[in-house]
User: Which sequence fits this backbone?
């Protein structure tokens, strides 16, 4: 059975179509990336999944349990890390985690709470009041709160926004371990290298519509082969080469260009054209295309 | 059940951690009312034969404190959680509408009754009270606290900002409590205002509560109980409807 089944979901905020008929299936055990620019509808979709928001049309279910009609079963299976850095200033870290366990119907959950705190490097802060924690520490507590009931499906909404390298590594190590142990993970992020490294499958949203859905490897293969990164010492890019430019904003000015090439054999003719035009190359690199290039290409082509 | 227990415990802990503000302060306020109004009016007003004005005033002040603090508890907890965003911790778990309702209203009753008991203990020094029908005292205190706790829940769900909540409190709850006969018997009012007062559900709560002490009231306690219970049923059904529909909480 699918971990998450999203069928024709629509959500409107007055004139704005936040979600415009999104359908999507996430299988058990996947590490799934949900990508898209700000305002694409990622958080709205997650809010509907988590029951924080209601869809105008369509259905969402978690392990077959509808998130509206069978919300208790659905929510027990979900652990959601919200995007906003929220906390309850009345309580300590341990109190916060005990309360959250209780809301999920769990008593005497301290062994697991201790383990989660250990993996997220929170043990030293267990008895500190939430108010006294730094932003990064508060973020860790949010992750711990989402995991108190060992949910089979974990949803992280931009968990690494504004977070230092150390926490990112601690967090991904722990989440990857949970994923290996069989937890389904759904992630939204603006850090595409993170998504590329972690996710086995990726969906891209734009203006409330699903514009790509494929395995990470297949998405990267879409940008065939490689890219030639050039920095020119003087002269400008000949018109004949302009259609190859991967990032259209590079044509607006500057001396750096990324050209799409399908084969190494294409490099020589490019260099010849540059020589004919009297252009001098300052620096040149042949790069493998990555998820960021795919993302930019897909978002541009959907304009 | 554990979910309900936890949320109830958290809601009680929330106000208990700042008890100086949520319990002690309203007790002091009620005591000041008693000292000042009692001092000024003791010699001039007698509402019921054989009952001194200070003694008459005590049950009204207790009930007023119960009602105002029950309302304050659920409404301020909700609006704070909404504005700071930490309401998601309650919205994400599998808590049912009944559990949410029971926990918020239950904690409001605890705070209301706690403040009421505090006012009672302090003011008992200043007045000789009788306890003709103690069960009516408990029933009206609990029902009144539950009613105002539920109204606080509705106000907290509805309000988007603190000033909207303050408007609800200052323009609806405060006038209704002050004009309900805390400081006077409505029988002393002109006929027109007596008629108006009979449409105020707060009047029945205070009148029934006072009956428990003195065995005297403006209307029969069973009638007051019926009015308050019906009013509570309507308000509770409305609050449950809001929770079930997700109004403003799961927009």
Assistant:
């Amino acid at each position: 059975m699918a971990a998450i089944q999203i069928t024709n979901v629509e959500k409107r905020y007055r004139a704005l179509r936040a979600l415009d008929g999104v359908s999507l299936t996430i299988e058990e055990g996947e590490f799934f990336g949900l990508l898209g620019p700000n305002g694409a509808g990622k958080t709205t979709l997650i809010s509907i999944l988590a029951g924080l928001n209601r869809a105008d049309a369509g259905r969402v279910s978690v392990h077959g349990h509808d998130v509206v009609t069978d919300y208790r079963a659905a929510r027990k299976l979900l652990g959601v890390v919200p995007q906003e850095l929220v906390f309850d200033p009345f309580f300590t870290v341990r109190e916060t985690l005990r309360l959250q366990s209780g809301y999920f119907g769990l008593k005497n959950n301290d062994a697991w709470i201790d383990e989660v705190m250990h993996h997220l490097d929170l043990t030293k802060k267990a008895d500190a009041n939430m108010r006294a924690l730094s932003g990064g520490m508060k973020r860790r507590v949010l992750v711990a709160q989402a995991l108190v009931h060992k949910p089979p499906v974990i949803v992280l909404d931009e968990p690494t926004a504004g977070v230092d390298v150390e926490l990112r590594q601690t967090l991904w190590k722990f989440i990857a371990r949970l994923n290996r142990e069989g937890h389904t993970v759904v992630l939204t992020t603006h850090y595409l290298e993170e998504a590329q490294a972690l996710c086995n499958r990726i969906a891209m949203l734009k203006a409330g519509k699903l514009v790509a859905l494929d395995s990470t490897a297949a998405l990267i293969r879409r940008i065939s082969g490689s890219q030639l990164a050039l920095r020119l010492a003087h002269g400008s890019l000949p018109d004949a080469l302009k259609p190859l430019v991967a990032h259209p904003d590079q044509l607006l000015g500057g001396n750096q260009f990324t050209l799409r090439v399908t084969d190494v054999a294409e490099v020589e003719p490019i260099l010849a054209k540059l020589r004919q035009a009297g252009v001098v190359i300052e620096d040149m690199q042949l790069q493998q295309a990555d998820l960021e290039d795919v993302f930019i290409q897909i978002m541009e082509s959907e304009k | 059940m554990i979910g309900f227990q936890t949320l109830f415990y958290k809601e009680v802990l929330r106000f208990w951690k700042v008890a100086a503000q949520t319990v002690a302060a309203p007790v002091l306020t009620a005591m000041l009312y008693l000292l000042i109004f009692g001092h000024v009016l003791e010699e001039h007003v007698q509402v019921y034969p054989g009952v001194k004005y200070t003694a008459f005033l005590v049950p009204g002040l207790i009930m007023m404190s119960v009602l105002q603090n029950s309302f304050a508890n659920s409404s301020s907890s909700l609006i704070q959680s909404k504005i700071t965003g930490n309401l998601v911790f309650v919205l994400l778990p599998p808590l049912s509408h009944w559990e949410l309702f029971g926990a918020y209203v239950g904690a409001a009753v605890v705070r209301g009754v706690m403040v009421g008991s505090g006012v009672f203990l302090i003011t008992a020094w200043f007045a000789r009270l009788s306890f003709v029908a103690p069960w009516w005292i408990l029933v009206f205190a609990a029902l009144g606290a539950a009613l105002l706790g539920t109204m606080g829940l509705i106000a907290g769900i509805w309000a988007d900002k603190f000033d909207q909540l303050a408007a609800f409190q200052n323009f609806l709850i405060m006038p209704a409590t002050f004009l309900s006969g805390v400081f006077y018997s409505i029988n002393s009012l002109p006929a027109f205002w007596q008629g108006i007062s009979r449409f105020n559900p707060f009047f029945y709560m205070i009148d029934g509560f006072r009956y428990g002490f003195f065995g005297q009231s403006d209307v029969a306690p069973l009638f007051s109980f019926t009015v308050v219970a019906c009013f509570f049923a309507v308000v509770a059904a409305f609050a449950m409807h809001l929770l079930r529909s997700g109004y403003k909480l799961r927009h």
User: Anything to note?
Assistant: The longest strand of chain A covers residues 16-26. Chain A has a mean pLDDT of 91.
